[in-house]
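Section 3.1: Structural characterization of target chains.
Under the original work plan, the team committed to producing a structural model for every single-chain target entering the pipeline before any wet-lab resources were allocated. The record below documents one such target. The sequence was received from the expression subgroup and is listed exactly as submitted; it comprises 370 residues.
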Amino acid sequence: MNKNTNQIRWEYGSELHWQSTLELQSLGGAGTIQEIFPHSRLHGTGCSAIRTILNYGQDTRSWQKIWVPTYLITDVIAAIADSGLAIEYYQDNPLLNSPGLPEGTLSSSDVLFRLNYFGWRGTEAILSPADTGCDIIEDHCHDPIGPWAQNSQATYCLTTLRKVYPLPDGAILWSPMGEELPKEPELTVSHLSAVQNKLSGMFLKQIYLNGGPINKAEFREKAIAGEEEIGGACGISGISELSRYFLSVLSVTQLSQRRLDNFQTFNELATNSVKAYIEQGQLKQGCYPFSIVLRFNNRTQRDDVRSGLIQDHVYPAIFWDLPTDLNDDQGLEFSSTMLSIPCDFRYTTEDIQRLVDILDHAISGCSALA
């Protein structure tokens, strides 16, 4: 973050803003996502990639049923439901050290959907269709180039890129097994409109953070509108040309390493009161964290700390608000007590230290300590 930024405009978290030319240049180089996965297809969003591969699998691989983990964001479930496949759930959540799997025998008409939560899982999570009896789709949006993603034996893999790249849209689909992929979809008018809103929000936020005459509500309005629109009415779209270009020059290797560096810096600087709530402070070899995850004693304490952070311009996320009738007590408990705080390329050591100080203050002042 620019050290010359007006201190009133300092904030941590929330939407990515557009980066300066110098910052974009520093993020370029070897290790682009398309160099790492050369035989791949780009999409506007991860949900577009999901819808496309599920439609393709029904047409070419006779899929009839998809197994999805209990711990899954509702937007992805909605995208999966659009395929018309029968949906069955199996228990899996971020706290399971051995990833969950469906009970019983799977058949060739099934497809298994798996996730790497927060980049916590490494090569121990690798499974092939020979192991499961059915095709496998893996979502690696929280760690696109970790050891599981790069050594995957799944039928298909996908990842949303706009969550880790400073871009308004982007996702990628590939086949570790070398299976044929559906062609890239055309860029739709509705998706392009959403990208324009997202990009406007990113530019306006950059101006805001640099002390410019922008009201915070202005960039938030654009960002929220773009997020609501993204994907278009049918939910399948190609990627914008702007994001396509930057994916060819920005290094996902550097972006991932910066997350890891900031994650390690946070753990080194954290006070004892903060360390008490860090979940997964140690990562498996080669894994890159998506964020810093904190877990509190109960929902009330979590919400109290979250309110204190927001007052000091730190904006944590909740992954995810799950339905209360979820058949996964462990997953529901985790969802109701966790906070996710980014540790991406935007932040310096000074930002991390300030974050730790604010967290320590919010935890110490929490009225819901148990």
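Residues 33-174 form a domain with the Aspartate Aminotransferase; domain 2 fold (CATH 3.40.640.10).
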